Every structure is written in C-alpha cells, then in structure tokens.
Amino acid sequence: QKEVEQNSGPLSVPEGAIASLNCTYSDRVSQSFFWYRQYSGKSPELIMSIYSNGDKEDGRFTAQLNKASQYVSLLIRDSQPSDSATYLCALLPNTGNQFYFGTGTSLTVIP
Amino acid sequence: NAGVTQTPKFQVLKTGQSMTLQCAQDMNHNSMYWYRQDPGMGLRLIYYSASEGTTDKGEVPNGYNVSRLNKREFSLRLESAAPSQTSVYFCASSGRQGWVGELFFGEGSRLTVL
C-alpha cells in the first residue's frame, strides 16, 4: 500500500503571499509525483509534475521533491483568490499504472 | 478536442436499481480509471484498465463491475445500487510513455442513491 499523506487544512493565506502545500509518502520505490488543483464541483486538473529531486518551476508554481525525506511540496507565489481550491498530491510508481492520491489540502486566498 | 467524456453527469437511483456510467477518451490513451470522491476521503480508485482487454481492482471495487469495451471506452456498472454508493464518480485516462504519465479527468458524474 503506497500511502500519500496531506494536511487537509484548511490553509488560508492573504493575497500576494506564498502558499506552501506539503505531501509525504511512505514508499521509497522510484516514482513520479503530481499536483492537481480541484475547484469546488469541478474535476481535478494537473498543475505540476516532478520526477527528479530538486525544484521545478512553472510560472507562479514551484514543485519541490526530496526523495531522501520522502516529501513533495508545492509553492504558490503571489497567491491570488483564483488559487482558492483543493490541491491533491498524487504519485505514480515508475513500474506501475496505478496513481495514488492524498486526501487533498483546501487552500483559501483571502483578498 | 473533447478529452475524457463521461455520462450521465447527474443520476438519482433508488436502492437496488442498476445503472452504467459511460466513459470515452479521444487521446489514444492505453490506461483508463474509475475513481469515486467523497468528502474528506479524497479520490479512491474503484477499477482501472492498464490496456485494452485488461481490468484490475483498485481500492474500493465492491459493488461495481467494469468493462473495457475498446481502447476508447471504459464503463462502470452498479448492479444493485446502495446508499453508500452515493458519490461523485470520475473517469480518467493516462497515456503513459515509459515512466512518464499524467491523468486526465472527465467532468464527473454525481450519483445519488436513495
């Protein structure tokens, strides 16, 4: 069983601040990691994927992967009210087809 | 470019009734998935199909059956619906290339069992 743990929140940050979302996992097998954003009543949409140790930046989003400590994080710079959503962490083992999801962290950006 | 299409979007059933959720993808993906999402529970995998002709149980398969009709279509059937199956159901597909893969989701189907 590959466990993916997320703090369910809710997490509140003021507009313009950095939001930090964290995810830990229990299996050391090589795998890929994904961050999905889900607005209320909508389906999840992919924001970032990361496969290697270190940071990966895409606009205001930065994903960080630390395989030694078994965590992956998502930083959202200059947070906007439109970033208010639930963020889901997921992992995909390199040798499998099953994605494993955390329960999600609810983020609210306060104007 | 439709992506992943699932129907119906809303359904109300009485306990014991049966129904089938349909899903189709136009991205030529090999893998397809059915998830359910309940408040506080995150996404839980019901069944998945790694390729045409294969299906495997996920975390919560009881009460469900699936059919991978062809590469495009993957249906989920509730033979005798129970109130515990009230949930939002998402179909997803993935076109894994080597060890790189991403999930693309349909818009979801909200099912209520009375």
From the structure above, extract its key features.
heterodimer; A: 111 residues; mainly beta; five-stranded antiparallel sheet; 11 strands; 0% helix; B: 114 residues; seven-stranded mixed sheet; four-stranded antiparallel sheet; globular
Instruction: Report the radius of gyration of chain A as a whole number of Å.
Output: 13 Å
User: Care to count the β-strands of chain B?
Assistant: 11
Helical stretch count of chain A? 0
- Quick one: biggest sheet of chain A? 6 strands, mixed
The number of distinct β-strands of chain A equals 11
Overall spatial form of chain A: globular
Query: Strand-residue fraction of chain B?
Result: over 45%
End-to-end CA span of chain B: 36 Å
Note the run of SSEs of chain A as H and E. EEEEEEEEEEE
Category by helix and strand content of chain A:
mainly beta
- Helix fraction of chain B? under 10%
Detailed description of the structure:
The complex is a heterodimer of chains A (111) and B (114). Chain A is built from no helices and eleven strands. With 111 residues, chain A is mostly beta strands. In chain A, the strands form two sheets. In chain A, strands 2, 4, 5, 9, 10 and 11 form a six-stranded mixed beta sheet that branches. Chain B is an all-beta fold. In chain B, 0% of the residues lie in helices and 52% in strands. Chain B has no helices and eleven strands. In chain B, strands 2, 4, 5, 6, 9, 10 and 11 form a seven-stranded mixed beta sheet that branches. Chain B has a four-stranded antiparallel beta sheet with strand order 1-3-8-7, with no helix packed on it. Chain B is globular, with a radius of gyration of 13 Å. Chain B starts with a strand and ends with a strand. The mean pLDDT of chain B is 92. The chains are: A mainly beta (111), B mainly beta (114). The interface between A and B is medium-sized, with 24 and 25 residues.
